[in-house]
Amino acid sequence: MVQMVNRMRAKMEFGSPMISLYLLGNPDHYTSHRFKLFYWKAFKVTLIKDNGRIVGLSPVHDYIYRSPNLENMSLYEWVARCTWETNRKQSTAQNIPSEDRLDELVPDELQDNEPELNNTEESTHSTWYKFSDTHPFSASHITRCVPYEKCSVPNFCGGILPRCDHGDREYYCTTMLTFFKPWRTGLELKDAHQSWDEAFLAHQFGDEDNKVIQNFNLWYECLDARDDFRAQLRDNAAILPIWASDG
């Protein structure tokens, strides 16, 4: 009897989202945006280590060997909007039209192990592009680019982003230019006679890019505000509410 009661009590502690997840297969959480993992240091470190010459494996190759139609697309926008897809049939890869834009390709031509699209509307409005011929998998893979309203939010992993008001200024400028200035080689990010700071100040960032760059620093501003408040409490300099005072 005790064992039965314990089992029933444990089941009563399950929340409705978890029960819905197991019984109906519904998501265990809901968000207003889609998020996509982005290991950003793989791109920046490659630029630094090879003195402006980019070498590396996918996903670096996917960006630097992107279609000429996406020439003006920054790395941040690429991560948010683009994914690579594998052609299911070899004949499909061999019969790709000469044009870079592949409007006639459909999702069921992709491999079975590729993630399925959530709805047909997303498939209809997506555009497929060929990689440049120098891409190692240009014959078998293509790029799917979704419209702005369907894009994901890059979730930066692999290290903390540099801040604009502290630390190494050159490191910060290198990172921001890598994210928001279109490039294929590191030499395109700045002129030989420029410093990274000069190249950063000379580049004209778009309004949306400037907004994202400013948002990068919000986390640090929150941490600074927290630390300042703790310091005030330590020094008894904080103004406490009436209910928190003694007597």
Automatic annotation (TrEMBL):
This is Uncharacterized protein.
